[in-house]
Amino acid sequence: MFINISPLKQYRDFRLLFFGQMISFLGSMVSYVAIPYQVYELTKDNWLVGMLGLVQLGPVLIFGILGGTYADRLDRRKLLLVSEFFMSLMILGLTLNAWSDQPSIPLIFILVALFQSILGFHRPAMDALTQKIVDKKDYAAVGALGSFRYSAGAIVGPALGGILIASFGIKGAYLFDFISFVAAFIALYLMSKIPNPEKRDNSPWTDAKEGLKYAVSKPELIGTYLIDIVAMAFAFPVALFPSMSEKWGGASAAGLLFSAMAVGSLIMTVFSGWTAKVSRHGKAVVIAATLWAVFIVGVGYAQHLWVALLFLGLAGAADMMSGLFRGIIWNETVPNELRGRLSGIEMISYMSGPLLGNARAGWMAAKVSVPFSISAGGAICAVAVIVTAFCLPKFWRYHGHASHTS
Fold this sequence. Notes:
Layout: H1 6-10, H2 12-43, H3 46-71, H4 76-99, H5 105-132, H6 139-168, H7 170-190, H8 204-216, H9 219-235, H10 241-245, H11 251-270, H12 281-301, H13 305-333, H14 339-367, H15 370-391, H16 393-396
Helix pairs in contact: 2-3, 2-6, 2-7, 3-5, 3-8, 3-14, 4-5, 4-7, 5-14, 6-7, 6-11, 6-13, 9-12, 9-13, 9-14, 9-15, 11-13, 12-13, 12-15, 14-15
């Protein structure tokens, strides 16, 4: 019933990677609040906050594929070390910019785009490395632990970000993120040397096309990508949190709004044992995405902070349910020699949707209103998810492997 922590006890390298990345992710979630909050404070423009998503979309699409390809060709640990180093420089740039008397909005957008480009190499390498340092039998437990790390960081990080911004300003939040990268770098450095992937004679672009060809050939993979993109593109409200927080307490309320979905995600993760007994993984993803849409509609109608937090928590639980089953499908379907490339494609699917969703939410809020943007987006999302599932019958009927042990 409860989450399985045995991989943390059994594998030293996984333990170092897990806790190092947990610290790094905690810092990243502090900046996740700080960046849009700073842009909104400087401009009071929901549309411009939403445009942060579009600035990041190009790097995600380009470097998600390219980064995944190199994760299958290079020493993944070294690739992570280099990525962590350069990402820390981008955060240092944001810190110095925040310290200036007149912070530059264009510089914020440039640094965010560069950070996202480097992340395109970091995340596929981390996913591929994780699969290499644990036994196959532990993939499900490792997936749940990864979800726990995400949820815990996404709860504590934004709340901490709100406190840091309220107490020390934006620069204090960025400085915390920079320090977290240093800790993650040390943890990666202490890991054992991981054997390189097998040497490949093909060019990186040939390898990238091979990964895309494999993904397109698997309806179950295409279904996980499209459902997630559709769900997030129409119903991701995060860009509007700085604006929403103004009437409920400013930076502190913003931190709570940014954390709320992760609270639901964490609760779903902790009680994720039941997912091992489910075999209709495609159907589970569709149901979860539909529930996500319904709860986001509730957020749009919320008149009080606690109501908004409640619906965001329920939405986060539904999103994590979808993520858990998508992760199971990926681990059952993707061989390790393609893990890096397919991790890049997966990253595109689960990151492009929110980035598009933020742009949509910001644009619609600027044109009509914040509540309309959220509730209408949720309603459109519910219809779009159902239509997408109807167009993908093989994904809807997909059966995976279920465990019936107690």
